[in-house]
Amino acid sequence: MPFVVISPEQLLDQPGPWVDILRAAKFEIRYPRNPLFTRGAGGEDETIGELAGAAAVIAGGECLTRKAIESLTDLRVIARAGVGFDRVDVPAATRRGVPVTITPTANHQAVAEHALALIFSVAKRIVWADMQTRLGNWPRVPTAPVRGQTLGVLGLGRIGRSTAVRAMLLGMNVIATEPFPNEAFIRANPVELVDFDTLLARSDFLSIHSPLNDETRGLFNAGVFAKMKLGAVLINTARGGLVVEKDLIASLASGRLGGAGLDVFEQEPPSSDNPLFRMDNVVVSPHWAGTDSQSMADMAVECADCIVKLHRGEWPEGAVVNDELRETFVW
After folding, report:
1. From the candidates 9, 192, 266, 268, which is the catalytic residue?
2. d(CA 220, CA 99)
3. For 3-106+291-325, which CATH class?
4. 239 is catalytic
5. Residue 84 pLDDT more than 90?
6. Which of 37, 111, 202, 326 has minimal CB crowding within 10 Å?
7. pLDDT at residue 40 above 90?
């Protein structure tokens, strides 16, 4: 019986409709021997060992490199639980005829909620205030307002649009940079489209919702931080590689930036001695913006649905990254 490996930590040995979908299609379910496998620390050799013989994988953050993909000769589908696929060598998968799918409609609301949580946490100094209060202190330090402030959104995909709508309901002014905007969304919402330099200059809070690729890697560097509004707050729930951390640290230390809310890092997990962890104006979380209980279930169902459709010879519309395989894919 062909088997599917389910690797995200939040889904290990968990019952749910995604398991039912796969078993109804006559797939066996297996889980990694290493429960932390999906973090990718073991590299491509661990990937090869954990996924050997699998027909498909519901993938988290494991390293699906060219070597791994070429070695996993039974692998027919890589179903990524999420919308990012920077840890998957898509060209290698395409050469092998392996569709790489994502879950485009499952977790955008969760990420938007988390982005706003980071905005509030930094503006209202929640983590610092909690710590001070627990220590017996009773600080009286003014916090920053969110209402009436300008939120800059880099990228108006599903996540960016969800963030923008929620911010507007909170009384924020929203501006955005997006080369290919959803025209219906722009017509229906008072979001002002601006160029990147204007976004930097006007944003009190700037939330990144951009994919990581060769063009965007290291986009937020010293030169970009120098163009940002004095005292602005950077929010990153996208990918750590979009930000040059040493430049961010310098900008925060100098007072150029007023704070940061970070769910992602250049190195994941980050080192415990990361200077960001010693800054009172920085709030961090462990790359889990898109993984609340509802979104994890929704992503798992979308992944399972993609695997089963491809097994049946159906194409999962809007979910396949390497859509050029549509006419040639054979299970």
Report:
1. 268
2. 31
3. alpha beta
4. yes
5. no
6. 326
7. no
The edge-to-edge listing of strands for the beta sheet with 28-30 is 28-30, 3-6, 56-59, 77-80, 100-101
Quick one: average pLDDT of 307-323? Answer: 97
Q: Residues 268-304: pLDDT tens digits? A: 999 999 999 999 999 999 999 999 999 999 999 999 9
Check 108, 239, 302, 311 and give the catalytic one: 239
Could you tell me the CA-to-CA distances from 224 to 70, 186, 218, 228, 229 in Å, in that order?
Answer: 39, 26, 10, 7, 10
Which one from 161, 209, 287, 311 is the annotated catalytic residue? 287
Verify whether residue 183 is a known catalytic residue: no
Domain 108-284 has CATH 3.40.50.720: yes
Active site residue 268: yes
Q: What is the pLDDT of residues 114-132, one digit of tens each?
A: 999 999 999 999 999 999 9
Residue ranges of the domains in the chain? 3-106+291-325, 108-284
Q: Please state, in angstroms and rounded to a whole number, the distance separating the CA atoms of residues 39 and 193.
A: 36
